[in-house]
Structures are given as structure tokens and as C-alpha cells.
Amino acid sequence: MPEAATPIEEVAGIDPAALPEALLRRDQPCVLRGLTTHWPSSRAGAASASEAIAYLQRFASAAPAMVTLAPPECGGRIFYRDDMLGLGFRHERASLAALLDRLQRPGDGTTLYMGSVAVDACLPGFRADNDLGFGELQPLASAWVGNRTRIPTHQDLPDNIACVVAGHRRVTLFPPQQLPNLYVGPLELTPAGQPVSLVDPASPDLARFPRYAEAMCHARVAELAPGDAVLIPSMWWHHMEALDDFNVLVNYWWRQSPAWMDTPMNALMAAILSVRDLPPAQREIWRGVFDHYVFDAGADTAAHIPEAARGMLGDIDQRLARELRARLLQRLNR
């Protein structure tokens, strides 16, 4: 990443006990310096890795969870094999308590990473003194624990506040519109569920990925210490690099959409199956259909239909969402 990359905007004066709605609805990322410096876990993380581990061990569950292990030659990058027909890491089951013990011992260069584990499951009781105030919003709180890791550039559907508890993180963000310049890999086989950029930000191969030079012009970067946080809005591409031998992140995910809504990835996959390979003229017709019923839909779209007869063109609730999902499954399975 070029040294002149744009810093992520910093926002100050946020009350961690009552996050304002304007922050939670932002569509631009921001760094929240010192947001969680009052957390006992962040204070321990700022002191040393050993103090952070000792603090977390007070809560660490003995229940098994998924741990990712990658060989030393991967350099901490959780990625594909060279042939891209498989993944360059493996999984094993271990408790967070066991992982914390292992991370205290001298390592052999193996990447160790426990990602996206529910905080209340792996650290029961932790949130009593280490939490943020979201009001009526009930986000999913997850923990990420490991050594030096590099998570490939990807995007997530939910909005996200990621809080550094221990270690330092370098966060590199790209706007959603940079998709064509990020050279995203397969949609089916992915390192962790989301498609990822094939470009390594640490050493981008611009001969193989020339459009990435344009993406770098739009990159926003920040380095975070214990107590710092970053807001990553929905669908912003982000590369997360853990810079120390022991790192902990706690993040909160939420969506600004009704609970009945499915992931738009389902629609993308269905469109690839049923629209992408149509003759060009027909594909353009369907572009207009999608604009009319989806992207440009408004009060006038179905105003000519009696309200009680609008079906999926009207307001959708849980009941109608279930009926529509059943109809889709029936059509796909015919």
C-alpha cells in the first residue's frame, strides 16, 4: 500500500455507552480513537500481551471452537493454495482457553487464528465490563484471537464496529465501487465465507493485476492500537492485518434492514444462473426489469394495483417473506 494512502477519517467525542444513531447509520468509514480505552481488556492489552492473556483467561470458555492453522510460508495470510483449487490452511477444534495457552508459548511460525466466535460463547461474562451501548439495537458481538495474521480484502453485508483489544492492526479500506479493480476470486470457494481479492496489499503484483493501481488511489488506511476502533460500513472492502504476536479484536455486526430480508448474495447467485448468459438484447431487457422492480422501485411501481392484491410488490412482512421464500424454493427445485 503506498505511503500516501488517504488516512481513514477520525471522529472524536463519541460516548461509548450511548453510540449515536448518526454514527450507526454512516455510509463512510471512520476511526474512533480511544473508544474502548476504559475497557479493562483494552487496558490489559495496552500493558502487555501477557496481561491481556491473563485477563482473557478469566473468562475463556473450555468449549471447542474452530481454529485456523496456516504454515509458516503463508506469512500469516489466510488464503488459497497456489493452484486455487483448495485453501492454504486447515482447521482444528480447540477451546479459546487452550488457544490462549498456546499463544503464550514460543511459536514455530504457524499462523493461529480463531475468528468470528460469539463473545458470549467463548468469553462468557466478558461483556459485563467490556461492551458498547447500542441502545435498542442488538448487534452480534464476535471475537477474533490469534498471532500475526493477514485477512484478504473482502466485504461484509452488515455494518461493523471493530474494536482492538490487544496488539496493533493495520486496516486498509476500499469503497464498494472498487470491485472491478480488486480482482475478486471465486464466489463458491472462499477462505471464510466471503469472496476475497486475489491481490496481496503487502506486495501487489501490478503486472498480473494492473487495475489494482486504481484501487490503491482510493484506499484509506489506519493503524489501530488497543482501545481504538473503526467503523466499517456495509459492503466496504477491508484488509485486516494483525501486526503483533498476540492480537485480539472484538467487533459488533448489525444490519440496517428488516429481519426478514435474506442476503443479496442469494439474488446475485440466482441472477448469474438465470440472467448473465442471456443474449445481450434480452439481458438489457432484464436490466430494465430489475431497475423497475428493484433499483428504482417506489410508491408508483405498484400504485395501479389494489393494495390488497399487490403481493410481493407491496410491503413485505415476515409472513409474506416466508411465502416468497417457499415460492422461490419451489421454482428452483422444479
From TrEMBL:
Pfam families: Cupin_8. It comes from the Bacteria. Residues 92-269 form the JmjC domain. This is Cupin.
